[in-house]
Amino acid sequence: LNGIENDIDAANDDVDDLGVIHETLLSTADGTRSEAIARQRDQKTTQINNHIVRLRGELNAVEQMNRNTSLTPSEEATRRTRHAVLARKLMGLLDKYRQLERESQKMYRRRMEKHIRI
What we know:
Layout: H1 2-27, H2 31-68, H3 73-117
Helix pairs in contact: 1-2, 1-3, 2-3
């Protein structure tokens, strides 16, 4: 479970990095540089999506293992609590990622509208 928690933290850091990449891309006017940054953004997005899919699978596997393992009531409660905390942490990561993507899309749209007006 510690490995899953570390992976969630790493994915969270990747989302923060993606936010910086979006900001850089929005502030860049150079076409060649924009293309390179856009590729970097796409790679980071793919990396985050892969993290999320893998983490969901790992959490589902832990949940199945918790169901099929006979433990003492206290051990079972501890494992279920820990699983719930990790699931909430992953949901927080998903919310943060989705919010970043929505905000970035709005900013890209505004930028395009501004260019069209000019």
